[in-house]
Each structure stands twice: as C-alpha cells, then as structure tokens.
Vacuolar iron transporter
Amino acid sequence: MSSNQTSLNQAKFALPNNDLERHATNLEIESVDNFDYSKRSQWLRAAVLGANDGLVSTASLMMGVGAAKQDIKAMIISGFAGLVAGACSMAIGEFVSVYSQLDIEVAQMKREKERMQGSDREVEDTGEQKESLPNPLQAAAASALAFAVGAMVPLLAASFIKDYKVRLGVVVAAVTLALVVFGWLGAVLGRAPVFRSAARVLVGGWMAMAITFGLTKLISSSGL
C-alpha cells in the first residue's frame, strides 16, 4: 500500500514539471515566431549595403583598370584607393543621414515633452525615447567597416596572381562567391526568400563589373 501511495505522489509531482516544460517550450516557439524582424532592418541595411557596395565598387574599379592595363600593381593600387575612398564616403554619408534623422527625432521628442508636461509618464517616456535614438558615430563606423570588409575580397583575390587572365578570373570567382554569401546572409537574417535575394545581388554585381570592364576596354582601345 505504501509503495502505491509513493508512486502516486511521484506521478502527481511529475505532472507539473512536464506541464512547465511544455509551457516553456511553447513560450520559446512563440517568442521566435513573434519576433519582429523589421527591428533588424536599420543595422542590417547598413551592413549588407555597405559590404555589397565595397565588394561591387572595388571589384568593378579593379576590373576597369584591368581592362586598360594588365599590370598587377595598377589593379592593386586602384583597388586600395577605392577601398579607402569608398569607406570614407560611406562613413560620411551614413553619419550625415543618421544625424539628420537624430535631429528630427530630438525635435519630435521636445514637442511631445511640451505636450505631456505635468503627466506622470513624462519622465518614463522620455527615458525610453532617448535609449532608442540612433547613434550617428556608430552607424558611420559600421558602414565604413562593412564597406572595407567587402572591398577586401577582390583585393586579396588579385594580390598574389601575376598572370593577367588568371587574375581576372580569380577576381570574378571570388566576387561571385562573396555576392552569393552576402545575399544569402541578408535573406537569412531578415527572413526573406534566400534564392531571390542571392540571385538579385549576384546579377547586380555581375552587371556592374561587366559594364565597367566593357566601357573601359572600349575607351582604352579607341586611343582616348
């Protein structure tokens, strides 16, 4: 009899534990399903666009120089100049853009503070709004870093290959792989269609390199 009571007690205590485990699992699933991926849009846009711009613009610049001159030194120098100039341009552009957004949001906060003066929620709401304000320096640094990371791909691919045709082929192959990775990464983080996103980024990069190479080749062959 005592053994039966013990087993019943164990069964009674086991049920809440199982219920709690199932409840915790359901909460985890709901938190994943209900996660707002649009919150990632701002930093994801800056990171993906910065890396993609660095990759495509630097690779296109190097392909354009390669269409006119087969010297490896000319390609590397042009690529490095494109990396530095592009990173600085991205940082300045992002800083100005985010600072303008900051000014708009601060002005809106002031108007709301004047409107809510005397309210009990005034201090609490103001603190929450300040925490959500964009950071221009952080955005500028992230954009410059992302651009530099993307630009390093064609630079490293071409740095140690002296043969002209092999060098161009390796640059195109490395850039193709990086474009697919960037497109896939952006789609996965933003929960967007992977194939369509990667294909869009890849075709755009190919077009940029082909147009730059073709036009530069045409101009250099014409003797201008």
User: Anything to note?
Assistant: The helical segments are 2-33, 41-68, 72-115, 122-131, 136-158, 164-189, 194-221. Residues 5-16, 23-39 have pLDDT under 50 and may be disordered.
